[in-house]
Design brief:
Elements: H1 10-16, E1 23-24, H2 25-36, H3 40-44, H4 54-68, E2 72-74, E3 79-82, H5 84-91, H6 99-102, H7 106-112, H8 132-156, H9 160-173, H10 180-184, E4 197-200, E5 208-214, H11 222-234, E6 240-244, H12 250-259, E7 262-265, H13 267-276
Parallel strand pairs: 5-6, 6-7
Antiparallel strand pairs: 1-3, 2-3, 4-5
Protein name: Restriction system protein
GO molecular function: DNA binding; restriction endodeoxyribonuclease activity
Organism: Desulfofundulus thermosubterraneus DSM 16057
Length: about 280
Protein backbone atom coordinates (compact mmCIF):
# COMPACT_ATOMS: atom_id res chain seq x y z
CA UNK A 1 0.00 0.00 0.00
CA UNK A 2 1.24 3.50 -0.83
CA UNK A 3 2.01 5.92 1.98
CA UNK A 4 -1.22 7.85 2.66
CA UNK A 5 -1.17 11.59 2.01
CA UNK A 6 -1.46 13.88 5.01
CA UNK A 7 -5.15 14.64 4.40
CA UNK A 8 -5.99 10.94 4.60
CA UNK A 9 -4.46 10.89 8.08
CA UNK A 10 -6.67 13.63 9.54
CA UNK A 11 -9.79 11.61 10.36
CA UNK A 12 -7.83 8.60 11.74
CA UNK A 13 -5.88 10.95 14.01
CA UNK A 14 -9.08 12.58 15.19
CA UNK A 15 -10.57 9.18 15.99
CA UNK A 16 -7.45 8.15 17.94
CA UNK A 17 -7.92 11.25 20.08
CA UNK A 18 -11.67 10.70 20.50
CA UNK A 19 -11.19 9.23 24.00
CA UNK A 20 -10.30 12.69 25.31
CA UNK A 21 -6.94 11.52 26.65
CA UNK A 22 -3.47 12.83 25.93
CA UNK A 23 -1.76 11.29 22.92
CA UNK A 24 1.72 11.49 21.47
CA UNK A 25 3.02 11.44 17.92
CA UNK A 26 4.98 8.22 18.45
CA UNK A 27 1.88 6.44 19.72
CA UNK A 28 -0.14 7.62 16.71
CA UNK A 29 2.70 6.74 14.39
CA UNK A 30 2.61 3.09 15.46
CA UNK A 31 -1.19 2.91 15.42
CA UNK A 32 -1.43 4.38 11.92
CA UNK A 33 1.23 2.04 10.57
CA UNK A 34 -0.94 -0.87 11.67
CA UNK A 35 -4.16 0.72 10.44
CA UNK A 36 -2.83 1.41 6.94
CA UNK A 37 -0.80 -1.80 6.77
CA UNK A 38 2.42 -0.06 5.81
CA UNK A 39 5.53 -2.09 5.07
CA UNK A 40 8.83 -1.56 6.87
CA UNK A 41 10.25 -0.07 3.67
CA UNK A 42 7.42 2.46 3.45
CA UNK A 43 7.78 3.40 7.11
CA UNK A 44 11.51 4.03 6.67
CA UNK A 45 11.21 5.99 3.42
CA UNK A 46 12.90 9.37 3.85
CA UNK A 47 12.10 12.74 2.37
CA UNK A 48 14.58 13.86 -0.30
CA UNK A 49 16.19 16.07 2.35
CA UNK A 50 16.99 12.93 4.37
CA UNK A 51 16.05 14.67 7.60
CA UNK A 52 12.79 12.89 8.35
CA UNK A 53 10.73 9.92 7.23
CA UNK A 54 7.98 10.73 4.75
CA UNK A 55 5.25 9.09 6.86
CA UNK A 56 6.15 10.89 10.09
CA UNK A 57 6.33 14.17 8.20
CA UNK A 58 2.78 13.65 6.89
CA UNK A 59 1.52 12.83 10.38
CA UNK A 60 3.04 16.09 11.60
CA UNK A 61 1.33 18.12 8.88
CA UNK A 62 -2.02 16.42 9.51
CA UNK A 63 -1.75 17.28 13.21
CA UNK A 64 -0.80 20.88 12.40
CA UNK A 65 -3.87 21.33 10.22
CA UNK A 66 -6.18 19.79 12.82
CA UNK A 67 -4.78 22.07 15.51
CA UNK A 68 -5.12 25.16 13.33
CA UNK A 69 -8.76 24.23 12.73
CA UNK A 70 -9.32 23.91 16.47
CA UNK A 71 -10.14 20.19 16.39
CA UNK A 72 -7.06 19.29 18.42
CA UNK A 73 -5.01 21.24 20.91
CA UNK A 74 -1.35 20.92 21.79
CA UNK A 75 -0.63 20.32 25.48
CA UNK A 76 3.12 20.02 25.52
CA UNK A 77 5.96 18.88 23.34
CA UNK A 78 4.64 16.20 21.01
CA UNK A 79 1.38 15.82 22.99
CA UNK A 80 -2.16 16.72 22.01
CA UNK A 81 -5.80 15.99 22.81
CA UNK A 82 -9.16 16.49 21.16
CA UNK A 83 -11.20 19.67 21.67
CA UNK A 84 -14.94 20.09 22.02
CA UNK A 85 -15.05 21.13 18.38
CA UNK A 86 -13.20 17.96 17.48
CA UNK A 87 -15.73 15.84 19.37
CA UNK A 88 -18.61 17.64 17.68
CA UNK A 89 -16.98 17.00 14.32
CA UNK A 90 -16.82 13.27 15.03
CA UNK A 91 -20.49 13.28 16.06
CA UNK A 92 -21.29 14.40 12.52
CA UNK A 93 -19.70 11.13 11.38
CA UNK A 94 -17.89 12.64 8.35
CA UNK A 95 -16.70 10.21 5.70
CA UNK A 96 -13.43 12.10 5.53
CA UNK A 97 -11.72 15.20 6.88
CA UNK A 98 -9.48 17.15 4.53
CA UNK A 99 -8.37 20.71 3.85
CA UNK A 100 -11.63 21.61 2.11
CA UNK A 101 -13.60 20.30 5.09
CA UNK A 102 -11.47 22.36 7.52
CA UNK A 103 -12.14 25.56 5.55
CA UNK A 104 -15.47 25.85 7.41
CA UNK A 105 -13.61 26.95 10.54
CA UNK A 106 -12.57 30.64 10.63
CA UNK A 107 -9.31 29.96 12.48
CA UNK A 108 -8.26 27.59 9.74
CA UNK A 109 -9.18 30.05 6.98
CA UNK A 110 -7.04 32.62 8.73
CA UNK A 111 -4.18 30.13 8.94
CA UNK A 112 -4.52 29.38 5.25
CA UNK A 113 -4.97 33.00 4.29
CA UNK A 114 -7.73 31.94 1.91
CA UNK A 115 -9.68 34.36 -0.24
CA UNK A 116 -12.87 33.32 1.51
CA UNK A 117 -11.57 34.90 4.70
CA UNK A 118 -11.21 38.17 2.82
CA UNK A 119 -14.88 38.14 1.89
CA UNK A 120 -14.45 37.38 -1.80
CA UNK A 121 -16.94 34.52 -1.61
CA UNK A 122 -14.81 32.44 -3.99
CA UNK A 123 -14.44 28.71 -3.56
CA UNK A 124 -11.20 28.08 -1.64
CA UNK A 125 -8.51 26.28 -3.60
CA UNK A 126 -8.24 22.55 -3.02
CA UNK A 127 -4.97 21.66 -1.35
CA UNK A 128 -2.61 19.30 -3.08
CA UNK A 129 -2.28 15.96 -1.25
CA UNK A 130 1.33 16.71 -0.24
CA UNK A 131 2.47 18.82 2.71
CA UNK A 132 4.36 22.06 1.90
CA UNK A 133 7.80 20.63 2.66
CA UNK A 134 7.32 17.79 0.19
CA UNK A 135 5.96 20.15 -2.48
CA UNK A 136 9.03 22.36 -2.03
CA UNK A 137 11.24 19.30 -2.34
CA UNK A 138 9.54 18.36 -5.61
CA UNK A 139 9.98 21.89 -7.00
CA UNK A 140 13.63 21.87 -5.92
CA UNK A 141 14.26 18.52 -7.59
CA UNK A 142 12.63 19.70 -10.83
CA UNK A 143 14.73 22.89 -10.88
CA UNK A 144 17.84 20.85 -10.12
CA UNK A 145 17.01 18.45 -12.94
CA UNK A 146 16.63 21.32 -15.41
CA UNK A 147 19.91 22.87 -14.24
CA UNK A 148 21.65 19.50 -14.57
CA UNK A 149 20.46 19.14 -18.16
CA UNK A 150 21.68 22.65 -18.99
CA UNK A 151 25.07 22.00 -17.38
CA UNK A 152 25.51 18.73 -19.24
CA UNK A 153 24.79 20.36 -22.60
CA UNK A 154 27.39 23.04 -21.84
CA UNK A 155 29.96 20.40 -20.85
CA UNK A 156 29.37 18.44 -24.05
CA UNK A 157 30.11 21.57 -26.06
CA UNK A 158 33.39 22.47 -24.35
CA UNK A 159 36.90 21.56 -25.49
CA UNK A 160 38.61 18.37 -24.26
CA UNK A 161 41.11 20.47 -22.30
CA UNK A 162 38.35 22.42 -20.57
CA UNK A 163 36.54 19.17 -19.74
CA UNK A 164 39.68 17.69 -18.15
CA UNK A 165 40.13 20.86 -16.10
CA UNK A 166 36.50 20.78 -15.03
CA UNK A 167 36.81 17.15 -13.90
CA UNK A 168 39.95 18.06 -12.00
CA UNK A 169 38.27 20.95 -10.19
CA UNK A 170 35.29 18.77 -9.32
CA UNK A 171 37.47 16.03 -7.82
CA UNK A 172 39.42 18.59 -5.80
CA UNK A 173 36.16 20.09 -4.49
CA UNK A 174 35.16 16.57 -3.48
CA UNK A 175 38.31 16.30 -1.35
CA UNK A 176 40.80 14.68 -3.73
CA UNK A 177 44.10 16.03 -5.02
CA UNK A 178 44.93 18.47 -2.24
CA UNK A 179 44.74 21.59 -4.41
CA UNK A 180 43.99 22.27 -8.04
CA UNK A 181 47.63 23.19 -8.67
CA UNK A 182 49.02 20.03 -7.06
CA UNK A 183 46.54 17.79 -8.83
CA UNK A 184 47.13 19.53 -12.16
CA UNK A 185 50.73 18.39 -12.18
CA UNK A 186 49.51 14.90 -12.97
CA UNK A 187 46.01 15.06 -14.40
CA UNK A 188 45.85 14.70 -18.17
CA UNK A 189 49.55 14.13 -18.61
CA UNK A 190 49.95 10.38 -18.49
CA UNK A 191 47.80 9.58 -21.50
CA UNK A 192 48.85 5.93 -21.56
CA UNK A 193 46.79 2.77 -21.63
CA UNK A 194 43.43 4.53 -21.51
CA UNK A 195 44.33 6.58 -18.44
CA UNK A 196 43.92 10.33 -18.88
CA UNK A 197 45.27 11.35 -15.52
CA UNK A 198 46.30 10.50 -12.01
CA UNK A 199 45.13 12.42 -8.97
CA UNK A 200 46.00 12.14 -5.30
CA UNK A 201 43.30 10.45 -3.23
CA UNK A 202 44.35 12.47 -0.18
CA UNK A 203 46.29 15.65 0.43
CA UNK A 204 49.46 13.70 1.37
CA UNK A 205 49.38 11.60 -1.77
CA UNK A 206 49.44 8.29 0.12
CA UNK A 207 47.23 6.79 -2.56
CA UNK A 208 46.14 7.83 -6.04
CA UNK A 209 43.17 7.51 -8.35
CA UNK A 210 43.56 6.84 -12.05
CA UNK A 211 41.08 8.77 -14.14
CA UNK A 212 39.61 8.46 -17.57
CA UNK A 213 37.30 11.30 -18.59
CA UNK A 214 35.83 11.42 -22.07
CA UNK A 215 32.92 13.12 -23.80
CA UNK A 216 31.54 10.01 -25.48
CA UNK A 217 28.49 10.49 -27.68
CA UNK A 218 26.95 7.03 -27.31
CA UNK A 219 26.73 4.68 -24.36
CA UNK A 220 30.05 3.45 -23.01
CA UNK A 221 30.28 -0.33 -23.30
CA UNK A 222 31.95 -3.01 -21.26
CA UNK A 223 35.02 -3.10 -23.54
CA UNK A 224 36.00 0.43 -22.49
CA UNK A 225 35.64 -0.42 -18.80
CA UNK A 226 37.58 -3.68 -19.29
CA UNK A 227 40.41 -1.81 -21.03
CA UNK A 228 40.51 0.75 -18.24
CA UNK A 229 40.67 -2.04 -15.65
CA UNK A 230 43.61 -3.56 -17.53
CA UNK A 231 45.38 -0.22 -17.51
CA UNK A 232 45.00 -0.05 -13.72
CA UNK A 233 46.66 -3.47 -13.43
CA UNK A 234 49.55 -2.40 -15.64
CA UNK A 235 50.17 0.65 -13.46
CA UNK A 236 49.64 -1.39 -10.28
CA UNK A 237 46.92 1.12 -9.36
CA UNK A 238 44.19 -0.01 -7.00
CA UNK A 239 41.39 2.41 -7.86
CA UNK A 240 40.00 4.20 -10.86
CA UNK A 241 37.25 6.62 -11.87
CA UNK A 242 35.71 6.47 -15.34
CA UNK A 243 33.74 9.58 -16.26
CA UNK A 244 31.59 10.17 -19.32
CA UNK A 245 29.12 12.81 -20.44
CA UNK A 246 26.87 10.08 -21.84
CA UNK A 247 25.90 6.81 -20.13
CA UNK A 248 27.10 3.27 -19.45
CA UNK A 249 25.57 0.07 -20.73
CA UNK A 250 24.19 -2.48 -18.30
CA UNK A 251 27.10 -4.82 -19.05
CA UNK A 252 29.59 -2.06 -18.30
CA UNK A 253 27.98 -1.32 -14.94
CA UNK A 254 27.83 -4.99 -14.01
CA UNK A 255 31.49 -5.48 -14.92
CA UNK A 256 32.59 -2.49 -12.84
CA UNK A 257 30.49 -3.67 -9.92
CA UNK A 258 32.03 -7.13 -10.21
CA UNK A 259 35.67 -6.02 -10.05
CA UNK A 260 34.87 -3.48 -7.34
CA UNK A 261 37.71 -0.97 -7.83
CA UNK A 262 36.28 1.24 -10.58
CA UNK A 263 33.66 3.94 -10.02
CA UNK A 264 31.53 4.88 -13.04
CA UNK A 265 30.20 8.43 -13.30
CA UNK A 266 27.77 9.05 -16.16
CA UNK A 267 26.57 12.40 -17.47
CA UNK A 268 23.59 12.59 -15.15
CA UNK A 269 25.69 11.86 -12.06
CA UNK A 270 28.40 14.24 -13.25
CA UNK A 271 25.89 17.09 -13.50
CA UNK A 272 24.50 16.27 -10.03
CA UNK A 273 27.99 16.38 -8.52
CA UNK A 274 28.76 19.67 -10.27
CA UNK A 275 25.65 21.20 -8.72
CA UNK A 276 26.31 19.70 -5.29
CA UNK A 277 29.90 20.95 -5.16
CA UNK A 278 29.32 24.24 -6.98
CA UNK A 279 31.43 23.56 -10.07
CA UNK A 280 30.38 25.31 -13.26
CA UNK A 281 27.16 26.72 -11.76
Amino acid sequence: MAIPDFQSLMLPLLKIASDGQEHGISECHDALIEQFGLSEEEVRELLPSGRQTRFRNRIGWALTHLKKAGLLEGIGRGKFRITQRGLETLKENPSHVDVKYLERFPEFREFRGSEENNGSGKEPPIEEPLPPEERLELVYRELTRELAQELLERVKGCSPEFFERLVLELLVRMGYGGSVRDAAQRIGRTGDGGIDGVIKEDILGLDVLCIQAKRWQGSVGVSVVREFAGSLLERKARKGVLITTSSFTVDAREYAKGIGNIVLIDGEKLAELMIEYGVGV
